[in-house]
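[job 0412] stage=fold_complex status=start
inputs:
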Amino acid sequence: MIVMRKLSYPRDRGEINNLLAGRGFAVADERTELVNDIINDVLNNGEQAVLKYTARFDGIELDGLLVSDEEFKDAYNKVGDDFISSLKKSIVNVREFHRKQLRQNWFTYKNSAMTGQIIKPLARVGAYVPGGRAAYPSSVVMTVIPALAAGVKEVVVVSPPDKEGRINPYTLVAAREAGVDEVYKIGGAQAIAALAYGTETIKGVDKIVGPGNIYVTLAKKAVFGVVDIDMLAGPSEVLILADSSGHPDYIAADLLSQAEHDPLAISVLITDSELLAEKVDKELALQLKGLNRKEIATTSINENGLIILVDDIKAGSELVNRFAPEHFELLVKEPFAILPEIDNAGAIFIGEYSSEPLGDYLAGPNHVLPTGGTARFASPLNTDDFIKKSSIIYYQKKDLASISDDIIQLAELEGLDGHANAVKIRFEGNEFND
Amino acid sequence: MIVMRKLSYPRDRGEINNLLAGRGFAVADERTELVNDIINDVLNNGEQAVLKYTARFDGIELDGLLVSDEEFKDAYNKVGDDFISSLKKSIVNVREFHRKQLRQNWFTYKNSAMTGQIIKPLARVGAYVPGGRAAYPSSVVMTVIPALAAGVKEVVVVSPPDKEGRINPYTLVAAREAGVDEVYKIGGAQAIAALAYGTETIKGVDKIVGPGNIYVTLAKKAVFGVVDIDMLAGPSEVLILADSSGHPDYIAADLLSQAEHDPLAISVLITDSELLAEKVDKELALQLKGLNRKEIATTSINENGLIILVDDIKAGSELVNRFAPEHFELLVKEPFAILPEIDNAGAIFIGEYSSEPLGDYLAGPNHVLPTGGTARFASPLNTDDFIKKSSIIYYQKKDLASISDDIIQLAELEGLDGHANAVKIRFEGNEFND
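[job 0412] stage=fold_complex status=done
writing structure:
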């Protein structure tokens, strides 16, 4: 039984090119209009519109959106101590890693002219956490902890309620353990609009982070510019580059851990070993049977799974860079010799014990990662997402004097004599500054 | 004669709130559809579509889009040595400043588990430089130099041609002096689409930077996700916070240097000195008369200029943060005592000799800055815009073992037993790895 589609590179170059071209985010979508209508409704009608869409899409009529202390207490009563213990370890590791990303203000002198860069945290951030039946406490940790590590004072979580109007207790406990008390029962495009513009009871934020479904993603794109957003998330992906030293059972398990997310999830193995490819395929068939989410994983593996045979690992790394995977596992004999060749990847898992799920929960680095080939230009969610910089310029008179002719020259050439005057006036006598 | 509208804070709080709420980027615009049509046309029909829109909007039928060596030579013959000398000083200062923004890879160990962050430059970047009659060599410097400083190998410039099919010679010379040979004669939404998707002769880029008109801005928003973009630029702004120590003539000149850009440009003075406010107003009337771009500046000052009287400088800094200006001048007796209060500003000009035009050309920091209040969450263009990060995770067996129960617990709780299996399989005997 052949589970994964097999191609060879460079032989099947054309087909691989087509696959690569088909990934990524479309400029517009037939759902864009609906999403824009929802956003404008929330902008114009505030909370009332949010409640209307919550009734329509989440199937629950709510009176208020803020999660109460009572609800937090209920949540703590429902989750086990084991969960809280694992959650806390996750929070510690994620916090430690992200604190290392923090940066310093700096300034420099050139003669007596000072320039520099000031780092400040954003004031208020909203984290979107998917909801419904599943629990996503790890999404809370991965979006909230970097924001708090960066120094953001106000972090709020939004998550869609279930049909009883509740947010998953694991999500709530994760929020409180991470350090967030302000949680709203809203989801979809209406949640994004409420965060961007604010409503009667929800104060607008400066940035919205966290992945959601396509409506959430389109809404994030729409409000980009009003607020900042982290990225436009697409289906999750793993790409494994392995030579004959790879363990077929580990590789199959890691591919399936991706495939079980979503029928659209993409799992790819690139290898120079035909034997490994065959063994992985067999293992996939075996392991698929035992999965709870067998149907999702099977569809994903059959429709979006791919094994690419390459002549050597060097050709493999070229393909990795073209693919620019969200998750990348490097399973070769000398991974640190290959690592410098990898230009485009969200998170790089090195060696046989760095299974991708390790990065989803506990390792420390973020699991919110660029998808759809955007690792060419985008990064894992990190503390830089929660700060902004200001340049500073402090010139003394003699410093300005030393380059005033150059400024005047360039300004006049650009047709901006007001710019030139602003410099000239500082070196000409006049009634005020004598 | 009263030139600038005057308000008091907190007295006119309501009016100031309305002004602040009216800034920023709208989610949709009546021009969005036209822009999306152009983009899709370029996506589907490539160069032919680009040439069609160039004929329609720029009024010139071109055979090819790439600027030739001949055209570069002509440009060098047209510009003076003085220009090249000033340009070179600008390039040196901008390069020196931006090189200080560069960052290092890092890694850390927790027991024997390694995690870290790798920095890589983007592969290919496109810089949009406005064109038409005016010359914008400084836009070339400010977009190209940070990209090259960050290590980007391929930087291309696009700029709309004039009716003779030429790009401004100052722009061309600036491109070559900055280090760019690949310049295309394209502008508007069609230029953004060509950069995002590539055409028969233009290779697509990973990121598009540089400000343009509203069509360029809407197009950048549309292709965001396909490629990265720097920001959505709006009208330019300066806000000056001054006490009685401020020089009214310098302040008026700096306000006018903003106002001459565009009737929509915004120039604001916040002061606790009524006397200073009056003197600035008089100076504005005087200085306006002498400007070449008098009409633009007058419209801008009358319609979008504003003096706000505050009780004290502390109240003034609160307003600065709410305004989040693109350019901010801090003209008070002890500027470095006030500086820590300033959370939101693109570039901060400190002291009487740090006139805003200094930052436009020569000081070193970037002049591509967040407008419309987006300094709440956005930064000056900087080398971080031209790199991306990858996380690395390298766990040994014992490191994974120490947290495997936590991963399994969290994965199963999220309903992802495939994730749990990927960890379990590494600690269970099986046919392959014994």
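[job 0412] summary: Chain B touches chain A through 141 residues (CB under 8 Å).
[job 0412] exit 0
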